[in-house]
Amino acid sequence: MSIRLLCCSGSLESGGSERQLWQLATRLDSVRVAPEVYLLYNRGDYLSKLPPAIPVHAFWSDHAQRNFWWTGQIHRAQVRHLSEVILRRKVDIVYDRTFHMTLLTAAACRRTRTPRISVIVSPPSQDFTRSRERFSWVKKWLLKRAYQDANCTVIAVSDSVAQDAVEFYGLNEKQFLTVPSPIDVQAVTAAAQTELPPAMADAAQADLKVVVVGRLSSEKGQRTAI
Questions:
Q1: Tens of pLDDT, residues 108-155
Q2: Do 117 and 93 contact (CB within 8 A), yes or no?
């Protein structure tokens, strides 16, 4: 019997974390793992790239007509909704990326007693601070508690991200596994072999051009590229 894995994200827009989650959901051995996707917003470029066989659950699709009146009501509704999906779909493992989803999945998995894998994708001393979260001290405490859950496996995308999380949240470094984000070699190779339009081909042959894709923040390594 295959393991039922629920992959959780805010959406499937074209960001790095969304792409990694899409890769995980679509590249796992379908005999051993049955992936499903849980989103807050049912949108994004990668939605159309999901195979029809992968079920998608979305919070706002089920709550589009509902009004929320006070602080915390949306979060509680999201926890309840995710918990219902976990129980109804008999999910074995919940997987999330980014601290925003960890705040949600931790509460739902604690309620349903479901094992969870949470991935820290950026140094929290920069990522969490830059996001300027409301009630940041409460969320920081909740995240520390979430990563310390006995039923949680914490993955960092690099050793430096893991060390930053240890210092920022006050965690034990033994709680972490370091698993670098995968690269879709087949997709890159296929794109590299695609024939360019004549104007682009002429320009590409004229000079060596290097393109670096990523926001201008230190963990993206733009300084190193320059």
A1: 999 999 999 999 998 999 888 887 777 888 999 999 999 999 999 999
A2: yes
Predicted TM-score of the model (pTM): 0.86
d(CA 44, CA 13): 4
Among the listed residues 96, 99, 95, the one whose alpha carbon sits nearest the alpha carbon of residue 164: 99
Rounded to whole angstroms, the Cα distance separating 179 from 145 reads: 22
Query: To 10 degrees, what angle do helices 159-169 and 136-148 make?
Result: 120
Q: pLDDT per residue over 6-21, tens digit each?
A: 999 999 998 889 999 9
Two structure tokens written together for 124: 């929290």
Q: Where are the alpha helices (DSSP H) in the chain?
A: 16-27, 59-62, 73-88, 99-112, 124-130, 136-148, 159-169, 185-192, 198-206, 222-225
Whole-angstrom distance, CA of residue 145 vs CA of residue 9: 20
Per the CB < 8 A criterion, the answer to whether 73 and 45 are in contact is: no
DSSP 8-class letter at 53: T
